[in-house]
Amino acid sequence: xxxxxxxxxxxxxxxxxxxxxxxxxxxxxxxxxxxxxxxxxxxxxxxxxxxxxxxxxxxxxxxxxxxxxxxxxxxxxxxxxxxxxxxxxxxxxxxxxxxxxxxxxxxxxxxxxxxxxxxxxxxxxxxxxxxxxxxxxxxxxxxxxxxxxxxxxxxxxxxxxxxxxxxxxxxxxxxxxxxxxxxxxxxxxxxxxxxxxxxxxxxxxxxxxxxxxxxxxxxxxxxxxxxxxxxxxxxxxxxxxxxxxxxxxxxxxxxxxxxxxxxxxxxxxxxxxxxxxxxxxxxxxxxxxxxxxxxxxxxxxxxxxxxxxxxxxxxxxxxxxxxxxxxxxxxxxxxxxxxxxxxxxxxxxxxxxxxxxxxxxxxxxxxxxxxxxxxxxxxxxxxxxxxxxxxxxxxxxxxxxxxxxxxxxxxxxxxxxxxxxxxxxxxxxxxxxxxxxxxxxxxxxxxxxxxxxxxxxxxxxxxxxxxxxxxxxxxxxxxxxxxxxxxxxxxxxxxxxxxxxxxxxxxxxxxxxxxxxxxxxxxxxxxxxxxxxxxxxxxxxxxxxxxxxxxxxxxxxxxxxxxxxxxxxxxxxxxxxxxxxxxxxxxxxxxxxxxxxxxxxxxxxxxxxxxxxxxxxxxxxxxxxxxxxxxxxxxxxxxxxxxxxxxxxxxxxxxxxx
Length: 658
What we know:
By secondary structure, the chain is of the alpha+beta class. 34% of the residues lie in helices and 21% in strands.
């Protein structure tokens, strides 16, 4: 029995050390927090049982060696991890008759800040707890950090560098390659804080939230940590959200934080309870690994048993087809869940996951549904041979020891996400709520295969309301936005088709030339198209190439059947701007926005362009003497620069060039 225990102890030490090394040194995760905590607890129990602690055991190490090129610095005192519990009763026992501060346990990168003479003098990462990396230049770019404060004594603080969920989502939406997107805010923050180029850090929206005051010379806090937090806020720091509590009120305080998880914009993986009495907490000292003045509370993951119904395969724009486990609905943390991402075939094989298996599921950090274990392990089967979106061939590929399924069809709709993004954009159908990430989810789930499918998402209501980030209200708002978008104009439709080179301005030119007769437009020859001002051979070729495709024509016809196009606008009798091209820049005084001015120009037969070229007739800029790039370009090309007043005179035929 001892041999078996020792073998398991060695196995767990190696496994958890590798997981910790990946997490701390490489900013990646090879197992979930749930799995790590479970195995860590098993290892700690084995060490107590056997009395053996191996060198390198994660129960003894605070962190790992720093491997970056940033300067290193030893901390004056070791920065220790916190002991933890998952039981509220244990928290109450630990607090005893003391007053405590309960706060978020933030999930980012711990940083030590030092202020001298009222200015930020130094910032050092936690590193391995004894030696950190100096990141002062990067810390100066943190969005919420004060570079100068009123207090001029020596001030040492500990804070958590974090990236908010809202900022994280915006940054990910800007990355076209799905596989290149960041996996979670913690990974992105870790890499951002430790950049060698502070400009990169500045672009990542890093914030620093203070959770501890280490030193403040000659300041009396009346022996209270809550007084410290109040004083830090006065100095301009963002401090961690906390609640003052005693033993009796502790359960209610924990519950309040639990209810706030869904709306908390700062990543967290639990709570921290600290004694408010500074002297009492420090008098308790520390163990080899943990300080005794604070304790961490990890959410006791609510685990439910259910049955795996099937694996849904969800393609992405890179061709990767992600497996999603669909199971019998269960209640978790107050909501009903029935789906969890499995990520790739390697993880499926590790779980030996097959339809009909009995599985246990939980919400990581009470937010993201995940599979905890597979109790029956029937084995992986029924991996599709064809892409669920385009029905093209699907192939299993192994990249860096990870097996995953890919669509081999270069024309797969899932790979053409940008065309759908353009169609629903503001200047096209303008469907609020259909972001790129949402479109990606819908296309991957097979809800959208072509443009017209956008108007039939009601067929998939049950599945949509269960998706992460959706609910009944979000679904209803989206459906209403889609219904509103069905009433549109022909130029918006033409622009939304995404034909190469046909921007909104050219779409309007085409519509006016053909008197808003779409059938005539799509049948026009290349020769006829090139007769239109602003439409050259390249654009004519792109237009004809698009509509020469029977597949495109049929797709557009199905989209048209869903739309209600406005009647052609009455053309102004006065077409005195015909043949003239205008570029607009700078602020406006007589028009609400540039779009309003553009529409006026086009109604008089003119064209509104975005950049100054040799074909530009006039540049409109109220700051005529500006040294902007467009003004400089106009002067180089000898193009007149008009103020709004001069443009209005031109419109009335009363403008005379100097």
